[in-house]
Specification:
Largest sheet: none
Number of helices: 5
Strand content: under 5%
Distance between the termini: 31 Å
Helix content: over 70%
Order of helices and strands: HHHHH
């Protein structure tokens, strides 16, 4: 898809800050992206779902934190690292194949 290819190119441009060898650390880029998403989505979630949300136990919050830390952060770090070694088109093709892998894993683990 053309949109995914453009997103990958934007990620690659953000990682490489214009001077060939000087790159933003993958961990730093992932942290800022996660922080920006949290700051933008948290007020919206609080405003829209405050009355409907059930109470959460500290154990549930801890589980959600670790699942997000491992799942989102690891996949984003791997995606950004893969852009250093492949083209934006190959990274876009891999992103589009994620639902296929998810489907086969769901069939395998049911």
């Amino acid at each position: 898809m053309r949109g995914d290819d453009d997103v990958c190119r934007c990620k690659e441009a953000a990682i490489r800050r214009g001077h060939g060898d000087s790159e933003v650390s993958t961990i730093v880029f992932t942290f800022y992206r996660q922080a920006a998403a949290s700051l933008l989505l948290l007020p919206l979630a609080i405003a829209l779902e405050r009355r409907n949300a059930p109470a959460m136990s500290p154990r549930l919050l801890l589980k959600m934190f670790f699942y997000a830390l491992v799942g989102n952060t690891l996949s984003m770090s791997l995606s950004i690292t893969s852009l250093k070694y492949t083209s934006a088109a190959a990274a876009s093709a891999m992103i589009n194949s994620i639902p296929v892998f998810t489907f086969f894993l769901a069939l395998l683990l049911r």
